[in-house]
UniProtKB/TrEMBL annotation:
Keyword field: Lyase
Entries under Pfam families matching the protein: PEP_mutase (PF13714)
Keyword Translocase part of the UniProt annotation: no
Protein name per UniProt: 2-Methylisocitrate lyase, PEP mutase family
Superkingdom to which the source organism belongs: Bacteria
Protease listed as a keyword: no
Lineage: Bacteria, Pseudomonadati, Pseudomonadota, Alphaproteobacteria, Hyphomicrobiales
GO molecular function: oxo-acid-lyase activity
UniProt xrefs under CDD domains: ICL_PEPM (cd00377)
């Protein structure tokens, strides 16, 4: 993380911070190269890309931790990482927070769903008792190694129990020490405004999912309401999946990879993005370039 502005310091600036969803080394490097100040490791994207299955509680702590390490190694930008439900009880939450911090994340998002959890914009989500959810946030705050490691407390109670219940839970999360409040999937502009008005002065996160349950707004619109973080977790993997569909269909029908409607990064630019110039410089410095390398 050397040279990166801590995420807490970024949130102390004026305005609303845009966090793009990243899910592997390529997406992390690409997002960093386009000038974002911070990133978000999306659970949906990680589960889809690493396991090829639905984000429905199937990923384990160790599998998610591998992606935290991957993203931390691919860029020095600070990033929030999806920690799902903490992968078990209170001891598991303690281990998860410590593990994510040691692996290079700048903060963790923890939610109050029952296990197995599901993507926050899908059906059939249930939440654990409020007291149990608050206990998880208290443990997370206690387990973090430093105050700069942020605890994002998410509630899915809007879907399961209604907005009033979600707001009550968020209030208790704030009292338990959460740094950022995340009321998942408000279903109207009025509900978004009510969240913002209820927690004026608190750091609030809004989750913008293309085709999801919440009205889809820009960072500027969310900032004007009072939100501090505008999360766009699916923009990257939805676009990547659409491009793959186009190029693979073209390859199947025409027998060649070029010429589809999908944008294709030039091979030279991909090499640059992934760090080949540094590899070549290393090899040259250590006498491994050219014919010597092949001996």
């Amino acid at each position: 993380m050397a040279g990166a502005t801590p995420l807490r310091a970024l949130l102390q600036r004026d305005g609303c911070l845009t966090l793009p969803g990243v899910f592997d080394g390529i997406s992390a490097r690409m997002a960093a190269s386009t000038g974002f100040d911070a990133l978000y490791m999306t659970g949906y994207g990680v589960v889809a890309s690493a396991l090829g299955v639905a984000d429905a509680g199937t990923a384990t702590f160790s599998e998610m931790l591998d992606r935290v390490r991957c993203i931390a190694g691919a860029t020095n930008l600070p990033f929030l990482a999806d920690g799902d439900t903490g992968y078990g009880g209170l001891l598991n939450v303690d281990r998860t927070v410590r593990g994510y911090a040691a692996a290079g994340a700048s903060g963790i998002q923890l939610e109050d769903q029952e296990f197995p959890k599901k993507c926050g914009h899908t059906e059939f989500r249930r939440v654990i008792p409020a007291d149990d959810a608050v206990a998880k946030i208290r443990v997370a705050v206690e387990a973090r190694p430093a105050k700069d490691f942020l605890i994002v407390a998410r509630t899915d109670a809007r879907y399961a129990e209604g907005l009033d219940a979600a707001l009550r839970r968020a209030e208790r999360f704030l009292e338990a020490g959460a740094d950022v409040l995340f009321v998942e999937s408000p279903e109207s502009l009025e509900e978004l405004r009510r969240v913002a008005e209820t927690f004026k002065g608190a750091w609030l996160l809004a989750n913008m999912v293309e085709g999801g349950r919440t009205p889809y707004l820009s960072t500027a619109e969310l900032g004007a309401m009072g939100f501090k973080i505008a999360l766009y977790p699916g923009s990257g993997f939805l676009t990547a999946a659409g491009a793959l569909q186009l190029v693979y269909r073209h390859l199947k029908s025409d027998g060649i990879g070029t010429g589809s409607k999908a944008p294709m990064l030039p091979f030279s630019e991909m090499n640059e993005l992934m760090g080949f110039p540094a590899v070549h410089a290393f090899e040259k410095r250590h006498g491994l370039s050219g014919s010597q390398h092949e001996k």
